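Feature request disguised as a bug: please show the residue count (285) next to Xanthine dehydrogenase accessory factor in the output. Example input:
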Amino acid sequence: MKPVIVRGGGDLATGTIHRLCRSGYPVIILETEQPSAIRRKVSFCEAVYEGRMTVEGITCRLAKDWREAQRTVSPRSPVLLVDPLGDILREYHPDVLIDAILAKRNMGTRRDMGNLTIALGPGFTAGEDAHYVIETMRGHDLGRIISRGSAVPNTGIPGIIEGYGKERVIHAGGTGRFSPLAGIGEWVEKDRLIGKIQNNAGDSKTWIPVRASISGVVRGMIREGFPVTEGFKIADIDPREDAVQYCDTISDKARCIAGSVLELVCAWEKGDAGRYGRFCEGEKK
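Example output, currently without the count:
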């Protein structure tokens, strides 16, 4: 099978990539020049900055171009290529294309870009933008395979953990470059200063403080020096006392979504994807 193409390398995308790789599928990831994942310890997109990223025993490496990506990719060894617009898809037609950008809107993916095209989350309509859409909203339907229609629209409210929902996520209070004062995996008390946003001129008098919204473990935080705008998501706090063990492992949500993607890919390979309600162009026989 030709390499699976996955657009996006954040934490939810990484769960899917990891599952595909462990199941024997070669995966090439297409990412932006400056990924903004906050759960960086479980996001293959960190390879853009570090050259490589290992998540639960699978190491992703950055390729300098498409030729290198094709030459070095193999099962259990995914490769990342900086290609934010998916330009390579103009000349390469994959068997399987997965849009896992999770931008809550379609960033240019079309159903005909792959023989089997799968999109994660809202912003897509199954049968139009993609062959199938996977529900990403926590709850009873998480991971549901949608053959007609769309996922639940984005609510902007994260899943509830110990009674906390939107309070868990911290957004930038202004524009500038972010400087962390706490690390991922660190316990912080509510209102503690965990970072600051400095204006581009470097004037310390205009720093914007970033404080912990609740007490808990910093499960995610954007990279040092990342340019943020007001309202930009920059950190995530988990109120559970034992949450430090979850910082560098794939989440239950990501694993659930990954299972549905793998199910579709396996069914398509066996020529049986039609059981989900829609025949895929190019389905294997």
